[in-house]
Amino acid sequence: MSDTDNAIAGETGSSTQVVKPPFVANPDLPPHGARRTDVDPKAAKRAEHQVATCFGLSALATVAFCICYVQIPIDAYLPIPFFGAWSASNLALGLTFGLAAFFIGVGAIQWAKKLMFGGEVTQMRHPLASPPEAREEALEQFWAGADESGFAQRKIVRRSLLMAMSLFPIPLIVILRDLGPLPSDSLYTTLWRPGMRVVLDPTEAPVRPSDIPVGGIVSGMPSVLPAVQEEQGTLNARAKDVVILVRLAPEDIKSQQGGTSSQPWDYQGIMCFSKICTHVGCPIALYEQRTHHLLCPCHQSTFDLADSANVVFGPAARRLPQLPITVDAEGFIVAQTAFDQPVGPSFWERA
Asked: What is the DSSP letter of 196?
């Protein structure tokens, strides 16, 4: 047995000696040293100019962002070796906006490291519930920190920071233009007009009442929708003009959103509703024939088609708008009128 083993487990009869580990002194923290800017006014002034320069460069980058947004065409491309053609507009906007944020961050870090108070502060632990005097002390420390930051004394830093921060939100406002034109009255209107045929989506075939059995449901759209989409080159119209046709036994219909006994909004139990959920605009087509409930697959809003498409479950705040229908001279289903209310999700200006 080695000497170390004997020291740790010496033989004293049947007992074992336990040797305590050697005492290690607290290494403590190294002594705090003053920064160069704390003792050299010229170094402090130089750091102040560096911070102001960063904030000024941020402001210039923000102005450059606005100029690039207006002057560079969106169809201009810049060849980049090994990466192909990049959008010149996107590249310029990304670089200028990124530099604007970068220089604000660099200036703030330089300010904190070289100009703000650099002394060591210790604070004893205390209970989580702060007494009133502690809150007053915290407020005093806040104002002391404001004084130590030099924000009030260093005018060039304060002014350049205010300039950079006041210009920095401008790109966020400028790019709102890319959201497109204001909707004007398009939120209130659809393509539906009196006498317009309902055609199947997507086959575009006109629909007769005999095509829909009791309990059946089909997706439809206005007959002019394909031509409008081709003219516009987009699918925007489909986002609000699509409908569903569902056929119930007449005795199962509890209520409708309008109509009279001589001119009901259904036709022989066939009713037409907007297919766009009134919550966030998801298309709906999950139909439970036994309960006559229509379920939105996005957030489970449930509408009772037998009772004016009222909401029976989920986050939707209003029922699905109903489109009055009838048949034309050739026996095809057509709209009596347009929707009497906006379709799709609710919006602030909606009455």
From this structure: P
pLDDT for the residue 234: 60
CB-based contact 324:258 (threshold 8 Å): yes
Which token pair is 91? 């590249």
Helix or strand or coil: residue 6? helix
Q: Token pair for residue 278?
A: 């009134």
Cβ neighbour number for residue 260 with a 10 Å cutoff: 7
Measured in Å, how far apart are the chain's first and last C-alpha atoms? Answer: 94
- Nearest Cα to Cα of residue 271 among 228, 235, 319: 319
Q: Which domain holds residue 85?
A: 36-119+138-179
Question: Phi/psi of residue 70, each to 5°?
Answer: -85, -40
Sheet holding 302-304, edge to edge: 286-288, 293-295, 302-304, 310-313
- Whether residue 213 is preceded by a cis peptide bond, meaning omega within 30 degrees of 0, is no
Residue labelled with tokens 């487990």 = 9
The helix/strand/coil state of 281 is coil
Q: Which residues lie below 8 Å from residue 212, measured CB to CB, with a gap of 6+?
A: 218, 245, 246, 247, 270
Q: Which residues contact 187 (CB under 8 A, 6 or more apart)?
A: 342, 344, 347, 349, 350
264 falls within a domain? yes
Q: Is residue 267 part of a domain?
A: yes
* pLDDT tens digit sequence for 38-95: 889 999 999 999 999 999 999 999 999 999 999 999 888 888 888 788 889 999 999 9
Angle, helix 155-167 to helix 88-114, in steps of 10 degrees: 150
CATH no. for residue 202?
A: 2.102.10.10
The pTM of the full predicted model, rounded to 2 decimals, is 0.53
Structure tokens, 153: 């004394």
Annotate 16-41 with b (16+ C-beta within 10 A) or e (fewer). eeeeeeeeeeeeeeeeeeeeebeeee
User: Is 185 a member of any domain?
Assistant: no
Chain length of the chain: 351
Task: Give the 3-state secondary structure of residue 222.
Answer: strand
